[in-house]
Amino acid sequence: MAAIDSGKRVMSGTHGYLWCDGELIAETTKFTAKYTATKEAVTFSGQMMEDTKTMGVKGTGSVAIQKVFSRFRDVVDAMARGEDKRVTFVSNLSDPDAYGAERVAIYNVSFDEATITDWEHKVLSKIETPFTFTDHKYLESVEAAT
Question: Which residues contact 6 (CB under 8 A, 6 or more apart)?
């Protein structure tokens, strides 16, 4: 197993960037994409413990952005018309003290919500939007140092 030489190697989200269909979203403050297994219960005679069988996988995530532009306006308008606008996200995390950079493409992104407006007096405006997706690809990954 590789040893970590210092805490400085832990990657900081401060150095994270996000692109949507090739356009940098510089005002991104948080980005998450993950797979969740959908499972069914499996039981056997004489066995008290319930087991499971993975039947599928669902890709979910969310993106949080500071309100600087009318970002995702086209998604809001499309959703209001009953259309499902799909996009591709590319996430890049490249902390200068880390062992490398991680770049991941998230494909076939479908937004679950489209916020029209959301603000509060004396609070910086931020919108968080959940989404689903169907595929990913590591474009660059960080390997363990040996």
Answer: none
What pLDDT tens digit does each residue of the chain (146 aa) get?
Answer: 567 788 888 888 889 999 999 999 999 999 999 999 999 999 999 999 999 999 999 999 999 999 998 989 999 999 999 999 999 999 999 988 888 889 999 999 999 999 999 999 999 999 999 999 999 999 999 887 65
The answer to whether the CB of 87 falls within 8 A of the CB of 21 is: yes
CB 28 within 8 A of CB 14: no
Q: In whole angstroms, how large is the CA radius of gyration of the chain?
A: 19
Q: How far is the CA of 47 from the CAs of 50, 85, 99, in angstroms?
A: 8, 47, 46
pLDDT tens digits for range 124-138: 999 999 999 999 999
Using CA atoms, how far residue 65 sits from 61, 62, 118, in Å, is 14, 10, 12
Copy the structure tokens of residue 118. 């959301």
State both tokens at 143. 């390997």
